[in-house]
Amino acid sequence: MKHFLLAALAPAALAQTFYGCYTEGNGARALSGSSLVDYITMTVAVCEAHCTGLGYTLWGVEYSGECYCDNALSLGSFPSFPTDCGMACSGDPLTICGGPNRLSLYGSSATPPTVTPNPHPPVTTFQPEGCWTELPGPRALAGTGAYSGSAMTTTGCGEYCLNSGFTWFGTEYGSECYCANALDVASTMALATDCAMACSGAAGEICGGPNRVSVYQWV
């Protein structure tokens, strides 16, 4: 009798695919079909059971105890840096349940869901623009920023910024990424040797330096 009771209280994982860490949408939840909040016992299996029980094919856990469901991602939700999702599930400290405004995204299909990035001009590649100084007030690239811990790469920063709708981006202090649609006019070009810190996610790449940004532009 106890055996069956415990099985009912602990939902078993169904067929699922982990797609990675995703951003929230542009002014809306990435998954807005249904939600479940439980900051005490939330697990990926609990979220999965809730969402699939309602007929949804995508589910994501966020901020340790939040669960969201839908059949498609909203505008502006796209893959983020894996280290953005670093919060343990409230009901399973050995499993990650997203992060602040970041979803650990799962689904029933082996193929990742289609993403619709924020609008940006048609571009195909990015080019280096040099090493630039940071500013005492606003950032040299002040559109948005991200910190990736151990996962920063030049390409990762570039894709994050382009998906966010920005065509200029820069890496700083080894693991920071900043985006904008123009470089602040108060920022000045620095010596190339001022940008000498290896990217935290790619030892062979340079990701700026202390108060110095390795700047790039999508073209």
From TrEMBL:
Keywords, sorted A to Z: Repeat, Signal
Signal sequence, renumbered to the chain: 1-15
Residue span(s) of domain WSC: 15-109, 125-219
Record keyword Signal present: yes
Residue intervals passing through the bilayer: none
InterPro entries reported in the protein's UniProt record: Sialate-O-sulfotransferase, WSC_carb-bd
Keyword Cell inner membrane attributed: no
Source organism, top-level taxon: Eukaryota
PANTHER family: WSCD FAMILY MEMBER CG9164 (PTHR45964)
Name listed for the protein in its UniProt record: WSC domain-containing protein
Species annotation: Staphylotrichum tortipilum
